[in-house]
Design a protein that fits this description.
With about 120 residues, the protein is of the alpha+beta class. The chain has two helices and six strands, in the order αββββββα. The radius of gyration is 14 Å and the shape is globular.
């Protein structure tokens, strides 16, 4: 069975996701992250909702800044390995959170890069 990341990495991941949620996703009142068998399960807390909303699952790759990505499919109640907007099946925790929140909070701007600057 795959191992969870060390406690220090778990703490760092929670902080990164919490900070990104505060910065980019004001619709969320909080983020929950639980670890099991080498995966981090990420759920968002919404105002007035008793249960957190599952968003995605991150696969521990052994590297702090790169995690495998699976989106939660509400239609089946399962996680499906998927690609981030970069076209890769792995990336930063912030990219994964943005991708899942873009879907579940109905904000497709999460998947579009900012326009190039015209200087």
């Amino acid at each position: 069975m795959p191992k969870n990341p060390p406690e220090s990495m778990q703490h760092h991941l929670r902080v990164r996701l919490r900070d990104r949620a505060r910065e980019r996703w004001p619709q969320l009142t909080g983020i929950q992250v639980r670890f099991r068998a080498g995966f981090a399960y990420v759920a968002g807390e919404l105002p007035g909702e008793a249960e957190p909303m599952p968003l995605c699952r991150l696969r521990f790759t052994g590297v702090l800044h790169t995690w495998g990505f699976a989106v939660y499919l509400a239609s089946s109640g399962r996680y499906q390995d998927n690609f981030l907007p970069t076209g890769l099946p792995f990336g930063s925790p912030e990219e994964a959170l943005d991708c899942a929140c873009g879907l579940y909070l109905n904000d497709p701007t999460a998947w579009t890069p900012p326009p190039p600057s015209t200087n």
